[in-house]
């Protein structure tokens, strides 16, 4: 079906708003950025913004939803390209370090948002928790294929390793942080494999 010119303009304006908000929210924070700054840099009017988003909160939720989809795709690609369960975990870990080593890295978008919206009842905080629950469940399932008995504890361990790497990656040498994180993942996998290999007493 052919889109109308007007519809094309509206889609383009929404995409430009979201791209602009994503860039500024991630690099500078959410509370520090107002609607006027976003509309000015996206080169749209406030009326155009409100045609697509009910307000700033909805724009922030769209930003987090976009980040969530990107991370889900990243994990899916990493898993699809690996054969064994342990290699799948390693591939996910390597994809995390690719982000840490990327230009303009400013930590985890979700941890950053949670620091600004700490009320558990706030929709933005709930969006953060929903993403993290999915991430923990995904890692736990992968680790469960390495050692089902230790999967839950290992999943929590890996998420904590990841959180530490994401926080440190924008403060210290990203190469060193990435190597340290990957070493930690290897240690976790080695522990799981050793426990699986030991005969039951």
From TrEMBL:
Residues 34-53 bind DNA. This is TetR/AcrR family transcriptional regulator. Pfam families: TetR_N. Keywords: DNA-binding, Transcription, Transcription regulation. Transmembrane segments: none annotated. The keyword Ubl conjugation does not apply. Residues 11-71 form the HTH tetR-type domain.
